[in-house]
Amino acid sequence: MQSSVGSRAFQNARLQKQARKQAEVLLPSAVNAYRQARHGEAQALCRQILKDLPNHFDALHLLGVSEADCGHFEEAVAALTRAVGVDPRSAEAQSNLGMALFRLSRYEEARVAQQKAIALKPNFPTALTNLGNTLMHMRRFDESIAAHDCAISLKPDYADAHCNRGMALLLVERNEEADRDFDRALSLSPRLIPAMLGKGLVNINLRNFDVALEKINAAVAANPNAAPVLAQRGRLFQQMGQLEKASADFEAVLALDPNLEAALCGRANLGLLNGDVASAIAACNKVLAQNPNSELAVTLLASCAAKQGEIATAIALYDRALELKPGYEEAISKKIFALDFLPGVDIAQLQAARRSWWDAIGAKLPRRHLRERNLDPDRRIVVGYVSSDFRDHSAALAFMPILRRHDHEKFEIILYSCSPRQDAVTELFRKLADKFVDAWQLSDEKLTDHIEADRVDILVDLSGHSAGHRLCVFARKPAPVQVTAIGNATGTGLPVIDYLLADPVAVPPADRHLFAEKPYDLPSIITIEPTPGDVQPSAELPMLRNGHVTFGMFNRTDKVSEPALVVWSKLMQAIPGSVIMVKNGAMSDAVIRDGVIARFVAHGIAAERVRCIGATARRDHLNMFAEIDMALDPFPQNGGISTWEPLQMGVPVITKLGSGPAARVGGAIVKAVGLDDFVAEDDATYIAIAQRYAADPTALAAVRAQLPAMVANSAGGNSDIYVRHVEEGYRKFWRDYCASQIG
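The structure corresponding to this sequence follows.
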């Protein structure tokens, strides 16, 4: 027995010796194949060694590195984990394991491996800069920058470390320092594509979009198949308003790498912009399946939910994004905007949410110390308006009457246009201004400088927390008096904005202490131009020719809250045969259109009683009011422009007062023209108004006949009167400021 055991041991020892000798021959060949990028051959040779010597460290290490180079990170982690198990003191193996874990987004495990590598070999610049990248993805930015600093101190000519530090600096908005790092990296390695891309990203952050495109194009020329670079160019094209080019880049990237997060998020964003919510949702879900912690994908998915009217879901997702990235400005602003659409939220909650933006973002920005200026209270005042909507946009309809009728002898008007999208409406705004500034390529700092240099006395925000806002400019206080108004007149939460243009209905006196700004009353919170002369209100009552009542809801579909839909469904059940016309550009999207119809059906309204109409030319849009008997104002987010339009076309609007300006603006407008009978305090009254006028065509026809004149003669609907009120407000603000400075 002993002889047999000894014989087997001898045989095993002989086989091990032969295997080691074979490994001594195979390993150099594997190394040579790896160096020549013949990865299949190198990996086959390593596996041949490991078949007989499963704990052969060098074969495991080389196999793991080769698998990682091929993008097979799961296989790389498996091999490298075995390698460090065989030799835990190999700094190189620990470092390479960290890199493979990093590529799988397993950042905490990567950090542990990389720190082990550095503990074993403190003077290891590669491990240090790789650790810096891992810490950057963990949002530990100060530690990340410190790790890159250590790598550079050990190897000052290490181009990758300079580039990596630049990327970390970008994320803490130290753009100028990042730019210097990218320049240093390129001086050491002129064709280092990540550094070329970094130069482009710096200029995107600084809104130097033309320069950014030049830098990123250089990186694309150096490697046309560099998917991450193409994805960033797509993002840049999107910011420049060149959506077709953006789409082409994102699709090219996804052909190269179907899972690249930046390109999938880009596709989702374009889907939202182009009215293709289904593709946006699919792209977001694909990102989140591979990276549940992508705050961008979560935010985009929230916007998809909001687009479909699923406001509670959207807000929960915005909150999730803020858990992932506290202080994420995009999510904070979008949540604030969405809260106005959420039923059951009171004015205190709405204003508290706005203050959260100030606490997280605005309060951290440096305030400007303004130069002395002429404090003559009666001199010509310089008024600057800041908006991304000086173009064919519904908000522009509310700006137009003011800008068209300003008294230029008393007011110098400067428009700061913050959108790359320009059209015939933009050209009209350009002609109405004393000075028009294309500000969309100006960073917040540069735009602040420009406003200061223009000696603006009163700076007016026209966006609130809506898309394209420049509240970070207002937070710096570049003008003595700052006002928020018209475009999204719900308050900003910024204590550095002095006034909110409001009205007594939209912002009741009892609620005014909750606002950061001081409300100043106009006849109506907004107004719009009279309808074009060739679009006339219809004198005929549609219900008389149709034999049924037609209600109209020409608002954004995300305003179709569940409480509003319940009331509308009860209203339609109470008025047999009635139909509702839902008109909005989003109705061209089958997902949204079918969703709206399905919601009515779920509340007992047959699908054929719901007419959905997509985008039309404005003249056709206005003429379509001749087909409806009464308009239904949504709630809690009322219509603004979409409340004025039917009134001007002779169609009364049934509305309900809620909490906060967005939930009261419809009632404010309807009351401003003297149509108080159509303003409800509760659901039952809302339904009763509809029933009353549906049952009395003579009374409804009389209201419709009188309504155009009521609008034209009201201070809220008469643009000349309205603008005089606005200018009186500006003059009061300026006089009060001058008095405060002189006193």
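The radius of gyration is 32 Å.
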